[in-house]
Write a structure and sequence with these properties.
Elements lengths: L10 E9 L2 E5 L6 H9 L3 H11 L12 E11 L6 E12 L4
Antiparallel strand pairs: 1-2, 1-3, 3-4
Length: 100
């Protein structure tokens, strides 16, 4: 029997910054470790909002301040018949900002 273990290590946290006319995936390297881990363990609105709050002051060198941030959590799993790897989005939050 083949199964995929669902654990935080099999989940992926992705943060997308929406700038004027462009969307860019943002690095989560500077995100405090517990915030990323908690968001992957239980991707509810409170934990995803904490990730947004931690990254809200991240300014892109070319595009400036984001107009919104989108946080997504994906769970990796494998098809038992083909063993193909796929991902399923299990958490999502987008927060818009007032840009001056």
């Amino acid at each position: 029997m083949f199964s995929t273990t669902d654990s935080p290590s099999h989940r992926h946290l992705r943060v997308v910054g929406h700038f004027e006319g462009v969307q860019l995936e943002m690095s989560t390297d500077d995100l405090p470790r517990p915030l990323g881990l908690y968001a992957r363990v239980l991707p509810d609105e409170v934990r995803l909002r904490a990730v947004v709050d931690a990254m809200a002051d991240t300014r892109h060198p070319d595009w400036g301040w984001p107009t919104s941030l989108e946080v997504q959590v994906y769970r990796s799993h494998f098809d038992p018949e083909t063993l193909a790897s796929t991902s399923e989005r299990i958490g999502w939050l987008e927060v818009s900002f007032d840009v001056e």
